[in-house]
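Protocol step 4 of 5: obtain the predicted structure for the target chain.
Materials: sequence only (see below). No template structures provided, no constraints applied. The aim of this step is simply to have a reference model before the mutagenesis design in step 5. Sequence pasted as it appears in the construct record:
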Amino acid sequence: MHELSIAQAVVEIASRHASGRRVSKVELKVGHLRQVVPSALEFAFELLTDGTSLEGAELVIEDVPARGRCRACGRETVMRGFPLRCRHCGGMDLELEAGEELLVDALELDQELAGLATRTGG
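Step 4 output (structure tokens):
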């Protein structure tokens, strides 16, 4: 389940940028080709944020469709499944323009510092 490692990275990025402030919302852009299961990512995020400044934060996941330009016909196409092919001419020689994104797009932070102690492993 790579969603757990993705959630771990998101929590680390959000925590670093929050600088001790409580995070109320995390917005992600996830490309369709990343093959992320949103419910698994949400579960992992909730598990990892328990007891942190991100606890209770809303996780908003925007699915970015796979999109590319066909080298055969020159048209842009959105690809919904595999194999990746042009919806116009059926060509498979595509220059990928979107769909591999995996980024924290925005954070919504409280103004005041969170009053939570840092969790330690044990």
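Step 4 remarks: The beta strands are 21-31, 58-64, 66-70, 76-79, 94-98, 102-113. The longest strand covers residues 102-113.
Proceed to step 5.
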